[in-house]
Amino acid sequence: MPCSTSRSTKRYGRPACCPRDILERWFIASGDTIKAGDRIAEVRVEDALHEIVAAASGRATIVATANAVIEPGSILATLEPQSA
């Protein structure tokens, strides 16, 4: 879920309107190359699990650790586009 875009780096995080939640686990490792639509993480909001999927393709860098409490607007990972 894109939070903001700065030049060529996409940032993934939670929208400010959502309640506090927990980053349950990553489906990727930092440095992995991912494709748009790939599931990258699982977040628990209250009692429900939600998958976070990549909005674009590129190389992911994980910022938040698994089992961390995620505040609204937190950056979970960044995505650097890969040149073709």
How would you portray this structure in words?
A hairpin with a 2-residue loop joins strand 5 (39-45) and strand 6. Strands 1-2-9-7-4 form a five-stranded antiparallel β-sheet, with no helix packed on it. The chain has a single domain (2-80), classed as Beta Barrel (OB fold (Dihydrolipoamide Acetyltransferase, E2P)), CATH 2.40.50.100. The protein is built from no helices and nine strands. The radius of gyration is 12 Å and the shape is elongated. The chain is an all-beta fold and 84 residues long.
Count of domains: 1
Number-wise, the strands total 9
Structural class estimated from helices and strands: mainly beta
Q: How many whole angstroms does the radius of gyration measure?
A: 12 Å
Strand content: over 45%
The major β-sheet equals: 5 strands, antiparallel
Order of helices and strands: EEEEEEEEE
Give the CA-based shape: elongated
Chain-averaged pLDDT: 83
Superfamily (CATH H level) name = RNA polymerase II/Efflux pump adaptor protein, barrel-sandwich hybrid domain
The CATH topology assignment is OB fold (Dihydrolipoamide Acetyltransferase, E2P)
How do the strands of the widest beta sheet line up side by side?
A: 1-2-9-7-4
